[in-house]
Amino acid sequence: MDLTTVGYVACFAVLLLLAIRVPIAFAIGGVAVTAIFIVFAFRTGTFLPERAIRTTLSLAFSSGFDLVHSYDLSMIPLFIALGHIAYKAGITTEIYEAARVWLVRLPGGVAIASVAGCGGFAAISGSSIACASTMGRICTPEMLRLNYDPRLATASVAAGGTLGSLIPPSVLFIIYGIFTESSISQLFLAGFFPGILSLLGYALVILLWVRARPEVAPIPDVTFSARDKMMAALRSWPAVTLFFVVLVGIYGGFFTATEAAAISLLFATLLGIFRGHIRWAEVIPLLRETMATTGAIFFIAACAKIFVALIALTGLSGDLVTLLDASNIGPWTFVAMVCVIYLVLGMFLDPVGIMVLTLPLMIPMAETYGLNLIWFGVVIVKLLEIGLITPPVGLNVFVLAAAIEDRVEIGQIFSGLWRFLGIDLVVLLILIAVPAISLFLPMSMN
């Protein structure tokens, strides 16, 4: 049996299972193990299943074991735990409160403050979904209380929540770095300016929206003195400290990304306990939530690693590279094809699932064109970020709707998001056209 044919059939089978809503881990893992078994069973030309069982199990378990024992993968539970601890300690709330006090008199100021709060939370947690859920509970009810248009009140938080994918640290960058063997520290630094650019783009959307229709964001009849503003800014020092621990620590070469995650988690935990926001007894439930989230991510990643072993075994990636060479398409055409594929997949699948499904095939082709994998990773993560708010399955929208207990219909949230999707596409084009935006910090890293 032709090995590449097995690879193509396996990919088609995975897509078919995903189309009927089989969970990504079971689809990828189940198909990979079955296909590997078939390859080894027909190795001599005759079907000999008894010879394939031991080899298949050995390859599957060794692939998953190697991934789970990866040193870099330990960052994921550390940053997820940091997000839970920081929220419980009030650190993430203080970011939003500081932004709200400073921007409340600006047209759409509370919505812009919500985006800024999402950016601050993203700089701590590394998870877009956690960002949308947490900030949705804090920001959206406040905007609805101030008679903001429900579309603006929800869309700004749903879009702002996607910043967790770009602004360091980022769980998606960690997974990308592990699967492509790229420097995770450099990926974190590469996402900083694109994340800030996205944040500024969202703020611009809100300003233009409110300028065109002032009734969507009434200006609250409240003022804050200079002292109030200064005190609010000073109260956000823990969040600023955590951000600089990660960014400056990595950029300055003082410690690795994993060490930055551990130091930040210890700092946030001790600060929360010292300030009385967290009791020792409350740490265990927070860690239990972290374990549940981490377990789901690890399971998907481990199944994906088995799928990578199948791709290598069948030589599918090499066959695709050969087809790409024969097609004579240029690198920018290839990048455009990648964008279309990811935008379409983003309508139906979660970001982690898309990444682990496509990277084994995309990276060899990107290397064929000599594309910088750090820059390519930023483009991929930006595309995945767009998918989080793209109908019909934009995860951030459904997470936000659940967080606010369906006070705003999902259709209304999506109807307010098209403006943010527009600016996301503009930012994406800028990042593709000007790679220096992504590469400046990692290339100047000590």
Automatic annotation (TrEMBL):
Pfam annotation, one family: DctM
Membrane topology, as annotated: Multi-pass membrane protein
Predominant location: membrane
Ranges for domain TRAP C4-dicarboxylate transport system permease DctM subunit: 13-437
Transmembrane segments: 12-40, 110-131, 152-179, 191-211, 232-254, 260-278, 290-314, 334-361, 373-404, 416-441
GO molecular function, one term: transmembrane transporter activity
Keyword Cell membrane: yes
Gene Ontology cellular-component terms listed: plasma membrane
InterPro entries: DctM, TRAP_DctM
Keywords per UniProt: Cell inner membrane, Cell membrane, Membrane, Transmembrane, Transmembrane helix, Transport
Location(s), subcellular: Cell inner membrane
Function: Part of the tripartite ATP-independent periplasmic (TRAP) transport system.
Family named by the database record: Belongs to the TRAP transporter large permease family.
Quaternary structure and interacting proteins, as annotated: The complex comprises the extracytoplasmic solute receptor protein and the two transmembrane proteins.
Protein name per Swiss-Prot or TrEMBL: TRAP transporter large permease protein
Organism ancestry: Bacteria, Pseudomonadati, Pseudomonadota, Alphaproteobacteria, Rhodobacterales
